[in-house]
Amino acid sequence: DWAPGTPVRPVRFEYNGWGKPQEEGRPGAFRKLSREKVLKEMWHDDTAALDSAQERAVEISQDLLSWLHASHPAQPVAMVRLDFMLLRLGPGQARVVFGEFCELGACCIS
Fold first, then answer.
1. How far is it, in rounded angstroms, from Cα 42 to Cα 35?
2. Can you tell me the distance from the alpha carbon of 50 to that of 41, in angstroms, rounded to the nearest whole number?
3. How far apart are CA 19 and CA 28, in angstroms?
């Protein structure tokens, strides 16, 4: 049982990205990435920025989970995945944007 206001920590983080854009401007192929690959290939080894972005996503998720619980208190979900988009802005800085809730049947890429 979970009570709103009680912090919830993620079980794990998953990383993905898109390949090079196609001619029409659409994103390229979906890629599953490791944290190490994200840091090396996309975040210039900026661990501080990625750690900060992940922590901000966890902070945002607390309000989202409280809202979800308040909206449907009699229908708790067994599992929920929250999708965030992260963008490194510069040394130690990142933008965090919430994407969507995925519950019951949500795919958790492993």
1. 10
2. 13
3. 4
Alpha carbon separation from 81 to 24, 38, 48, 61, 101 (Å, rounded): 31, 20, 24, 10, 6
Q: Who contacts 68 (Cβ-Cβ below 8 Å, separation ≥6)? A: 77, 80, 101
CA distance to 18, 19, 46, per residue, from 36 (Å): 16, 17, 11
Q: How many CB atoms lie within 10 A of CB 24?
A: 5
What are the tens digits of pLDDT across the range 1-53?
Answer: 677 678 889 988 999 988 888 888 787 888 899 999 999 999 999 999 999 99
30, amino acid identity = F
Single pTM value for the model:
0.82
